[in-house]
Design brief:
This protein is of the alpha+beta class. It is built from nine helices and 18 strands. It has a six-stranded mixed β-sheet with strand order 6-7-8-3-9-10, sandwiched between helices. Strands 13-17-14-15-16 form a five-stranded antiparallel β-sheet. A four-stranded antiparallel β-sheet has the order 2-1-4-5, covered by helices on one side. The longest helix has 18 residues.
Length: 323
């Protein structure tokens, strides 16, 4: 059985406006990327800042490597935090930015130089040592910000929506790079995002937050296939909610199968068809409700708007009223 690297026990932090987190119990294991996911104000950044020592707590314990760090200042904790805004010093070169923390720890100059060279090799950014942050792209600046934290060899790397300022293509590249670096160095990462796609792509486990509490913890597959509540089901991925007398059926668009003829259990009329690359999104009016189905692009050519169709649900979950 794996021993936890980080343990949050009964952690509570409340702000004057009522926001914050309450009675949080959570474990993070060595070498995993654990992502806190949820909408603005759900408490995910508060938890990250609590672990980093930037927010004091009202109650509970924060253990790293078995040691309670509640009384330790951020610089005394075995953590390093990367912010959304990079926080690179504009008057320093890349080398000086990377060396800053190691110089404070009084590491030998030759060791600093070797460590920076190895890190830039890993990030494929050799030759940028003498450049200033304003000479780098947003993605390159974020790589340097992450590298600066990694060079301090933290027990836990804390990432607060680090890719949200980047465009979609660069964001995807940065996710892939982070996952490779994390695997190569076997570092423990706590990642905060409101982007469900990012959470699904990066994480070993996801913590879905809702109004200061944990709604569900699980692997991306568990969260996607077995959401424990309608809130989680609606927050992760696309979901149809089909009303019934005593509740609702939650079904993913890829689990709605359009049938030939009238062989399906449900009958409706196609209202729109959108080609999205290799597949198509088909909207069906079912008893006044909009049901979305994903179908292969080749199959969509046999369909048209206003066409009556039948369909069946391959896999779904039932939520009773109020669940």
């Amino acid at each position: 059985m794996r021993s936890p690297k980080v343990q949050l026990k009964r952690v509570t932090k409340k702000y004057a406006n009522g926001d914050g987190v309450e009675n949080i119990n959570l474990e993070i294991y060595e070498g995993e990327i654990l992502t806190l996911l949820g909408p603005s104000g759900c408490g995910k950044t508060t938890l990250l800042r609590i672990l980093g020592g930037f927010n004091a707590i009202d109650d509970g314990e924060v253990l790293i490597n078995g040691n309670n760090v509640v009384q330790l200042a951020p610089e005394k904790r075995p953590t390093a935090m990367v912010f959304q805004s990079y926080n690179l010093w504009p008057h320093m070169t890349v080398f000086e930015n990377l060396a800053f923390g190691m110089k404070l720890r009084k590491m030998p100059r030759t060791q600093i130089k070797e460590a920076i060279k190895s890190m830039l090799d890993l990030l494929k950014m050799n030759g940028t040592e003498k450049k200033y942050p304003n000479q780098l792209s947003g993605g390159q600046q974020q790589r340097i910000a992450i590298a600066r934290s990694l060079l301090l060899k933290p027990s836990v790397l804390l990432l607060d929506e680090p890719f949200s300022a980047l465009d979609a293509k660069i964001r995807m590249q940065m996710r892939e790079e982070l996952k490779k670096i994390q695997a190569q160095l076997n570092i423990t990462v706590m990642f905060v995002t409101h982007d469900q796609e990012e959470a699904m792509a990066l994480s070993h486990r996801i913590v879905v937050m809702d109004k200061g509490k944990i709604a569900q913890v699980g692997t991306p597959t568990e969260i996607y296939d077995q959401p424990v509540s309608k809130y989680v089901a609606s927050f992760i991925g696309e979901m149809n909610f089909i009303k019934e007398a005593d509740g609702e059926l939650a079904v993913r668009p890829e689990n709605v199968r359009i049938c030939s003829g009238n062989s399906g259990n449900y009958k409706g009329t196609i209202t729109s068809i959108m080609i999205l690359g290799h597949f198509a999104s088909v909207h069906i009016n079912y008893e006044g409700q909009d049901v979305k189905a994903f179908v292969a692009r080749s199959a969509s050519f046999e369909l048209c708007e206003t066409m009556p169709v039948s369909f069946e649900l391959i896999k779904y979950q039932r939520y009773k009223k109020g669940a």
